[in-house]
Amino acid sequence: MSNFLNQIIMMVVSVVLNNTLTYYGAMSIYGEDIPLAVAGILTKLNSVLNAFTVGLAQGCQPIFSFNMGAGDYGRIKETYRKALVTAFLLSVAIFFVFQIFPRQITTIFGGGSELYFVFAEEYLRIYLMMVCISGVQPLTINYFTAVGNVRTGLMLSLSRQGLFLLPLLVLLPCLFGLDGVLYAGPTAEILAFILAMSTMYRHWQELTHMEQDVLT
Question: Could you tell me the pTM of the whole model?
């Protein structure tokens, strides 16, 4: 259910994002078409990135579930730590690729004017600047789903797109124009990361107490 609702919200976010880019792009030197075309590229790149992070998170699900039932809380913590490090290293590598080669990545999807490439470089660098922490939320969502904490998993699943990104896409452009659309993505990523880590930290303490009770 959490993944299903997340996909629905992502669809709503895409509609709002496209309309916002079109509206505020018309007020800029880029016009309506360039921001909308670059948004399509970003959607494709995000789907590739999500395939890695979500695949890693889903691969850990049976390990989390089995060891929670078996009472092996140390194995759960070890798995989460290793998956977190793996997701972070993967995301950092992707971050550097986006920051160093934005124009080369854009050309894979077609050509355009110089103004098109200028906006594409700026869009990719800004909107994906916090991609290095993007693997934390899907991993944490799948963890809570795997251990039977459905409400927490659902809350985290809806947080980035629904609770943070959607309002930011409406608010920030009103204040900063087209730049507000670009910075909505990394801002929502940071807020979702803080929420996921703070939620996991509290649960981690509970796991530690449960592990100590088993040992004693």
Answer: 0.89
